[in-house]
Amino acid sequence: xxxxxxxxxxxxxxxxxxxxxxxxxxxxxxxxxxxxxxxxxxxxxxxxxxxxxxxxxxxxxxxxxxxxxxxxxxxxxxxxxxxxxxxxxxxxxxxxxxxxxxxxxxxxxxxxxxxxxxxxxxxxxxxxxxxxxxxxxxxxxxxxxxxxxxxxxxxxxxxxxxxxxxxxxxxxxxxxxxxxxxxxxxxxxxxxxxxxxxxxxxxxxxxxxxxxxxxxxxxxxxxxxxxxxxxxxxxxxxxxxxxxxxxxxxxxxx
Length: 254
Prior knowledge:
The protein has helices spanning about 1-10, 45-55, 75-95, 110-120, 145-150, 170-180, 200-210, 225-230, 235-245, 250-254; strands spanning about 25-30, 60-65, 65-70, 100, 105, 130-135, 155-160, 185-190, 215. The protein is of the alpha/beta class. The chain has a single domain (about 1-10, about 20-250), classed as Alpha-Beta Barrel (TIM Barrel), CATH 3.20.20. The strands form two sheets. Strands 3-5-6-7-8-9 form a six-stranded parallel β-sheet. Helix 6 (about 170-180) links the parallel strand 7 and strand 8 (about 185-190). Helix 1 (about 1-10) crosses helix 7 (about 200-210). It is globular and about 55 Å long.
């Protein structure tokens, strides 16, 4: 399967389309815009620059999702809410009335399951959608059990950037198993333009063709990645997934 994937998606297609209006997405549901809480924005000025450019390209709303990862970014719900409040205050002082709320990108581990047990999860727009991520290297052995627990507690599970997990590359059945378990897939649009390497790019294109994506996010971390945002505006595969009518960002979170 991997060899077939490589043959089909190895060479990027010509990107000659007109720029995509990101108003078609409307709401960016994955970003790292709270300054100095994780590996995302390092300053208020950087966040302001990123959001201003995104608004210029058509985004109307943000659900920013800082990491909660006990061994890397041991953030708390209250701490991240305070960070959002400070960011919104600064934006308003500068005359920017951006519509931004907060959730989190949860690393799928025992700490996350403990937070679930305590019902201490930051969900999107206070709805029941929760964003999770796996290790990039090792497939979580308890994934299906944890997903079942989330669903039993009334949560809708969104898996961040499924195309970036090396252990899934070339294994279409593994993706189908997750979908059959009720997992929603969030595409990192930058994956389509080779931001994370050819494996992620080819897998993202495959999942677009298989109509497996439900949401789109930028997963933008810093000002340098605005170059990928510009490149994604001319991605044929991004246009294809938007033309499919399957993307739920604005339908669920507007």
